[in-house]
Amino acid sequence: MKITSPLFEAFLKCPSKCHLRSLGETGSGNEYAEWVRAQDESYRREAARRLQEAVPETERVAAPPGIESFKTAKWRLAVNVVAQTPDRSADSLVRESQPDEETRGLGGPHHETRSSGRESAPSISHESQSRLASAATNLESRLHAIQRIPSEGRGRPAQFIPIRFIYRNKLTKDDKLLLAFDALMLSEILGREISFGKIIHGDPRSRARERADTLAANPSEQPIVPEASALSQARLQPQVLKVKTSALAGEVRKRLEKMTALLASR
Asked: Which domain holds residue 69?
């Protein structure tokens, strides 16, 4: 079973919506939803362009062909990265979960016999089956960007930091869980924990308009001393939030287990 980031986002908002999306159903006639989608895409393109301009051309890539080469990568920034966790079938995971011959030996905790005297395979509980189904699920996402920080010493791996672009000024918990979804997927691919990620968000123009409206409505809040040029420029930049994705990994896994059960049901 494949769970994509759009499906995971739909599940965070509404399980029924997620189930319908998994069946190929699409909504129509919602002009506001279409407007939000257009704003998101426009913001992502612009934010990715600004981020790329801050990195030398020789140290950035766009849509890299294979995430398997990340361990030997030399770039510092990759944008528009489509990635998927390795395929692991449920059958292979069931075999891995069963004890070996030595564990199933006489007197072992899993030793069972039938009336014929032959040893029977240990049963797997419903809870274990749920975990196995979740483990067999493939995760797929289009990462908006990945920052790579070179290793600081011999034998120490480089750091990979997933980045999401969100046009809204105010973030929600779902935004952070989506970033944690990207981090969990990336950690499965690289074989090591991705501790944190970044969310670049906010429309500087809308913040400037909100500030102007506030000052117009409350003249008493007008600054006595003119703002410095540097401060004015800082307010025109998007905001950057650093998120500790490792603290959200457990909640993402629980949501994935529930989502897997939902999509596997009738």
From this structure: 2-97+122-203+240-264
